[in-house]
Amino acid sequence: MPTTSLPESLIATLPGGYYTSPETFAAEQEHIFESMWFCAARSSDLGKPGAYRTVTVGRESVLLTRARDNSVRAFFNVCRHRGARLCTQESGEVSRAFQCPYHAWTYDLQGKLVAAPNLTKMPDIDRTAYGLAKVAVTEWLGYVWICLADDPPSFEEQVVGEIVARLGDVGAIERYAVADLAVGRRIVYDVRANWKLIVENFMECYHCATIHPELTDVLPEFANGYAAQYFVGHGAEFGADVKGFTVDGSDGLDRIPTVAEDQDRRYYAITVKPQVFVNLVPDHVIFHRMYPLAVDRTVVECDWLYLKEVVDAGRDLSRSVELFDRVNRQDFAACERCQPAMSSRLYAGGGVLVPSEHHIGAFHDWVHDRLADRLPR
Ligand code: FES
Ligand code: FE
Asked: Which part of the chain is the Rieske domain (predicted)?
């Protein structure tokens, strides 16, 4: 077996077991995904009162809907009678209430229990107390963020603070008017890899020269293998002959008019722990959300967001979408290549991070902190 003692300039990664152990994954579900703000859906997925979506967050299913007052509501997707899963569809629409298919308890869009067969024979039941259990919810950047913790952390600190730390000030993202953009395309990737491999991959650009030929053509700086986070604050510049952030460097779509001059012809990549990645370019925003479903399986839902008039006019988005769709497929193939080797005895002590990846070491420290003393021994 090779030695695990490293030169000082190199940092060890997490041990392989962190990517394969069901116990570690269960601890992450509880102490990361069920404890932090989680980006669950695009607000426009809940287009009108009664529209709903179900999402898996940690070990729970959560029902998202829009109430009559247009506010977004989130509930545990569990009937209060005998625990049947209330909604089994991923999305849909009800006219005014959710009815459990088992014994027909019925809940309005605010979660209140409004009808139950023979309930008059149970006069003592408190219809509010036996309403659907609420989950904390807020909206930002046109997305629905939820938190399953009994006492949610500050959204400002966890989510807004992380974006500000990456971009310098909140205005830098507000200028992309993300909430007002429209979903031009959504692609859902079912990735056979642990969620942390996907985060680590997104945080580095050491692999860009090897696996992303189209991306490095558009962003020549990336061919140097600098970490994506190196470009934080000033972004990565488009190549001199590149017209737009497209698969062949041809013209992009209409520029978001409020993007600042110094943000034009630049690409920014932001990781918002625990499960969001955002890419900002002058004419669109690429917004990824991960749903970790198993220790070796992560669904990634990716939205390409453009000006509403661009989407409404049916403009051709194909060259624009294809660039990052290829990047995603290249990245996820790399993650899937690593996953099976995580259980190799050769990787029991982990691998190494080169100096440009030191921020991935910081991510590992964060995982350690979240799980401190909470892993089975
Ligand atoms: Fe839902 Fe009985 S379990 S009504
Ligand atoms: Fe990549």
From this structure: 37-146
Question: Could you say which of 121, 147, 173 is where a domain stops?
Answer: 147
Residues having C-beta closer than 5 Å to ion ligand 2: 331
- Give the integer Cα–Cα distance in Å for 224 and 211: 13
Top-confidence residue, 330 or 231: 330
pLDDT, mean of residues 7-36: 91
* Closest among 356, 88, 335, 108 to 199, alpha carbons compared: 335
Ligand 2: distance of its center to the CA of 334 in Å?
Answer: 9
- As for how many domains the chain has, the answer is 2
Range name among 138-152, 209-223, 277-291 with the lowest pLDDT average? 209-223
Res. 97 pLDDT band, cuts 50 70 90: very high
Q: What angle do CA 215, 220, 222 make, to 5 degrees?
A: 70
Q: What is the mean pLDDT of the chain?
A: 92
For a pocket test of ligand 1, which of 77, 105, 113, 114 has the largest count of ligand atoms closer than 8 A to its C-beta?
105
Nearest CA to ligand 1 atom 3: 82
Of 245, 251, 253, 201, nearest to 227 (Cα)?
201
In a domain, 7, yes or no: no
Within the chain, what is the greatest distance between any pair of CA atoms? 76
CA–centroid distance, 58 to ligand 1, in Å, is: 23
Instruction: Looking at the structure, tell me whether residues 122 and 190 fall in a common domain.
Output: no
What separation in Å is there between the alpha carbon of 54 and the centre of ligand 1?
A: 18
Q: What is the pLDDT of residue 1?
A: 46
pLDDT higher than threshold 60 for residue 229: no
Residue 243 lies in a domain: yes
Q: Please spell the DSSP secondary structure of 265-296, one letter per residue.
A: TEEEEEEETTTEEEEEETTEEEEEEEEEEETT
In this structure, the answer to whether residues 125 and 161 fall within a common structural domain is no
Whole-structure pTM value: 0.94
Tell me the CA–centroid distance for residue 104 and ligand 2, in Å.
Answer: 48
What is the interface pTM, i.e. ipTM, of the complex?
0.97
